[in-house]
Amino acid sequence: MHPDRMWRSAEPRKSYDVIVVGAGGHGLATAYYLAKNHGITDVAVLDRGWLAGGNMARNTTIIRSNYLWDESAGIYEHALKLWEGLEEDLGYPLLFSQRGVLNLAHSLQDVRDGVRRVEANRVNGVDAEWLAPEQVKEVCPIVDVSPGVRYPVLGATYQPRAGIAKHDNVAWALARAASDLGVDLIEHCQVTGVEVTDGRATAVTTTRGRITANKIALSAAGHTSVVAKTAGLDLPLQTHPLQALVSELLEPIHPTVVMSNAVHVYVSQAHKGELVMGAGIDAANSYRRRGAFHIIESQMAAALELFPVFARAHVLRTWAGIVDVSPDASPIIGLTPVENLYLNCGWGTGGFKATPGIGWCYAHTIAHDTPHPLTAPFTLTRFTTGALVDEHGAAAVAH
Amino acid sequence: MKYDLIVIGAGPAGMAAAGTAARGGLRVALVDSAAQLGGQFHRQPPPELGGGNVRDDPTHERLGRDQSIEQAIQAPAPRRDFLRLRDRLTGVDLHLGCRVWAVEPSFAVHHDGGTLTGERLLIATGAHDRVVPFPGWDLPGVMTAGGAQALLKGNLVVAGRRIAVAGTGPFLLPVAAGLAAAGARVVGVFEAARQMGALARYPAKLAEGAGYAATLARYRVPYHRGQAVVAAHGADELAKVTVAKIDDGWRAIRTREIECDALAVGYGFVPQLDLPVQLGCATTRDSDGSAIVAVDDQMRTSITGVHAAGETTGVGGAELAELDGIIAGHSITGTPLPDGVRRRRERARAFARLLHEVFPVRDGWRDRLRADTIVCRCEEVPYQAICDAQALGAVDTRSLKLLARPGMGWCQGRMCGYAVARLAGEDPPPPRRPIAQPISLQNLAAYPLRSTNDDA
Ligand SMILES: Cc1cc2nc3c(=O)[nH]c(=O)nc-3n(C[C@H](O)[C@H](O)[C@H](O)COP(=O)(O)OP(=O)(O)OC[C@H]3O[C@@H](n4cnc5c(N)ncnc54)[C@H](O)[C@@H]3O)c2cc1C
Ligand SMILES: Cc1cc2nc3c(=O)[nH]c(=O)nc-3n(C[C@H](O)[C@H](O)[C@H](O)COP(=O)(O)OP(=O)(O)OC[C@H]3O[C@@H](n4cnc5c(N)ncnc54)[C@H](O)[C@@H]3O)c2cc1C
């Protein structure tokens, strides 16, 4: 990309007020809201590769806010409300399509969890419905809801305001807006270390030289633990590849988004007509951006039972991203034991939907050196205090 | 059961290597997506068409003139070469009709009917046509030269009644000669290159060319140098083409129109690197700028246990491919190379380099694109969309793809990859295709479960 025309290409300067490590969706949104909401524009966003070439370029773009716990509903619903006005705010088409998301239930336990989640969502002001199999069929006629199959559909939660967006457009729009407000976006600049003096982060070393900063904010997804380690922080994160795949273009046949946590399959039809399918995470830890084929093989077998019409669709391409999974499947956001060093990670398989919300709250946290109320529950210390936000039911493999 | 060697691609390179390795005592599997052995040059019709009858298809009725199509396309010398290669395959397990969609280290070869495992791999997946877009190139009736030849050799189907053959390279000659001998009226061969004197240094090759030239003369097919088809026209299908005299940069000078119902157009070949790239084999550039697998003088790639041979290591014709295969086979079995093989290969390789020099592809074709000329057929991306993306700031192939989607459809950029890269001012990067051939979800789902992913 030639930044001059979408955003300004910057050479790293010697010093900044704030350095954001990682130009994924989160890093870019953080920089945008630092400038917009807090007037902090002496900011550089550094990325080891292309701008938004990490998970931001690789995710299946499901956006929803129907998480179980109050803490999660808070941050995700905040994000969803921002999504609803983001296109206008950024003045750029994001192809945000609120086509609804179905989460299928295949067992009695799934049904109980789903019904409970719908109730919890309603209490939190999140739109949510419980659908019986016939209603599932009405929303998405191509799902096989017949009883005799291996994964019978016993019902589904449905969030009508949920949907998908075009990830690249989101990244470019945020980059352009941040750049217009004075933020430096610096590609191919890998952070190799965080310098800590007297318990305080003061600079980063990079492949393009040393840069000092008053504040350093990590947002490097699957690589956050690697960078944090250089500051002496050992994060409770496991890094895994997560795969997705895409088919040839088909006529419009799939009107909504269908997720099935039990079989680890997530399917939507993108704007042009290709099916986008997310798989489950590879069990092994790895930083390789290529997953194992047996994962998608077994998951596609399950997907075909749910969608028999896709049998003759072809997989044209698969890819993987490197995701950072925390012990309770919730993100880690906020201050760290190192002064002036901030943390945003652990989004695992589901952080795209949070992009504007986390950018908003992380910027606040950095600007005020205090957690934003919506992200305050997601501290690093919860793994020692035990105040976990256990979203394994709703989020373990949920995009 | 684990094979000692799995050879992917049953063209001259793969057949020669498989035969050599089997004679050296190895358990060898030879895999190809085609139903018949032979690859591109030795492509064979299926047995049920073996009698030389054109397929019973009303749009392609038999046009044979003074000989059967089969005779027309099975010149005696190549036929002998093919039979020799085939007869050496005794003991080799053939897996034909198996499209390999992925290979995994040490070594699992996944095809649409299952998985083969082997200690070593030899990749001989050949090349495909290099496509250069021009106005009207997406009309029915316009096809690649390789496609026209594959129809003829593999299906005994003549692509049209009045056919123009255009592009650049020696490959246009056998295509035109084959079509003419099979009964089509070939209205002309339009070869972009002009200066071919340097080829005289290779008398044997010259003789081969003279053979084709004699065939063209017999059927009164005019051969024009320094000319190109710059546009194709027709309402629903091809009706005529615009032919131009072109300068050294391939800009059109003077044009005329010629009626025809088929156009076979070929601008050389692009090596097929999906599988070696999947394995992480180092690549390098051929003298024409094409990405190729890097091999040493034993045809070993940078990945232990993986050899490559034939056009994946550089386009250069069937003889070179076969010699590559022989060298790879002996390297794998550790048996001594017969006298003269290496010398013949050096000569064939030098000739291939000379062909790249004599038949270059120049960027002048870019001037012919109009706003509505389709660049990527699968995603229906017109030239204007490429220009718009460039205006937005896309200065490289990757950004063009992100902004305008060329190369993201069915063929994953095999067709448009060259053109899009040149429009971005780059040599085409090595292809990254984690799935080498589209695989249907039902075939993928039919894989036996290996290990399951515990709840994540
Ligand atoms: C296949 C797949 C499907 C997914 N589907 C969904 C979905 O449907 N819905 C959803 O909400 N979420 C989904 N996710 C998760 C989502 O993509 C991530 O949680 C989210 O993108 C993470 O935030 P980010 O965009 O900032 O990350 P990234 O885009 O990964 O950004 C991190 C950046 O940090 C950079 N970096 C790393 N190390 C360094 C260093 N040392 N120095 C400088 N820079 C560095 C990287 O290059 C990268 O650009 C999916 C993820 C994958 C892989
Ligand atoms: C369409 C075409 C026509 C040609 N005609 C001539 C000609 O007339 N004269 C001439 O001198 N040269 C011709 N050439 C050049 C020709 O490619 C070489 O001369 C010679 O055939 C190269 O041999 P090879 O063994 O390297 O590859 P090829 O002969 O191309 O054989 C490669 C084989 O690999 C198989 N394959 C590729 N990918 C996969 C996969 N993923 N799974 C399974 N199988 C796979 C293909 O089906 C093919 O059979 C032609 C090339 C093309 C593309």
UniProtKB/TrEMBL annotation, chain A:
Entry's Gene Ontology cellular component terms: cytoplasm
InterPro entries on file: FAD-dep_OxRdtase (IPR006076), FAD/NAD-bd_sf (IPR036188), Rhodanese-like_dom (IPR001763), SoxB (IPR006278)
Required cofactor names: FAD; FMN
PROSITE patterns: RHODANESE_3
Keywords: Cytoplasm, FAD, Flavoprotein, FMN, Nucleotide-binding, Oxidoreductase
EC number: 1.5.3.24
Reaction catalysed by this enzyme: sarcosine + (6S)-5,6,7,8-tetrahydrofolate + O2 = (6R)-5,10-methylene-5,6,7,8-tetrahydrofolate + glycine + H2O2; sarcosine + O2 + H2O = formaldehyde + glycine + H2O2
Subcellular location: Cytoplasm
Keyword Phosphoprotein on entry: no
Enzyme type, top EC level: oxidoreductase
Primary site of residence: cytoplasm
GO biological process: tetrahydrofolate metabolic process
Stored NCBIfam families: soxB
Family stated for the protein in its record: Belongs to the SoxB family.
Protein name as it appears in the record: Sarcosine oxidase subunit beta
The organism of origin for this protein: Acrocarpospora corrugata
Classification lineage: Bacteria, Bacillati, Actinomycetota, Actinomycetes, Streptosporangiales
UniProtKB/TrEMBL annotation, chain B:
UniProt GO molecular function: oxidoreductase activity
CDD domains in the cross-refs: GlpA-like_Fer2_BFD-like
A matching Pfam family: Pyr_redox_2
FAD/NAD(P)-binding domain sequence ranges: 3-313
InterPro entries: BFD-like_2Fe2S-bd_dom_sf, FAD/NAD-bd_sf, FAD/NAD-binding_dom, Metab_Enz_Cyan_OpOx_G3PDH, Opine_Oxase_asu/HCN_bsu
Gene3D superfamilies for the chain: BFD-like [2Fe-2S]-binding domain, FAD/NAD(P)-binding domain
Keywords: Oxidoreductase
Region described as Disordered: 41-61
Protein name listed in UniProt: Oxidase
Organism: Acrocarpospora corrugata
